[in-house]
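Table S2 (text version). Query chain:
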Amino acid sequence: MTILRALMMMTLTVGIGSGAAQAADVRPLPKATISVAVSNPQTTTQDLLTAMNAERRAKGLRKLRLDPALSKAAQAHVNDMMRRQYFAHISPEGARPIHRAAKQGYKGCLVAENLSYSWKSIELAMAGWMKSDGHRANLLNREMRDVGIGIGPNNLFVAVFAKPCR
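Corresponding structure-token output:
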């Protein structure tokens, strides 16, 4: 794994009690060395969901449900990172995944996020997540019930995992 790829494969898990803003660790969005157009975001979303649920099923975990509010939060984060050219879990203003989910109306007691950029395929992005302790922990967290997926150019993927408050 290259140093650049390792920097891009950061993970942050945020719980409901961690709403205090901290200085954001914001990196510029790297120039893509691989240009892969997403021709059909719905198909790509379904493929990514299927791959995530296959990993969960292999570990005896229930499948994640695709949640519209979390998907809006994930896509809004993709759009913001692309527009403002940064790559981070925390926005320049300090907004975290739990804040973005709440803004879209999702009441989460536990919210986590995985980011991936410029992998050649969903399979390679998933392999990268599974090799990363933090990403794997988010994906295989048995408390998570819902997921939202956002997709951008050059295979920028955002997956927001959450446990709803009931």
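Notes on Table S2: Residues 1-25, 31-39 have pLDDT under 50 and may be disordered. The helical segments are 3-8, 41-58, 68-84, 97-103, 122-131, 133-139.
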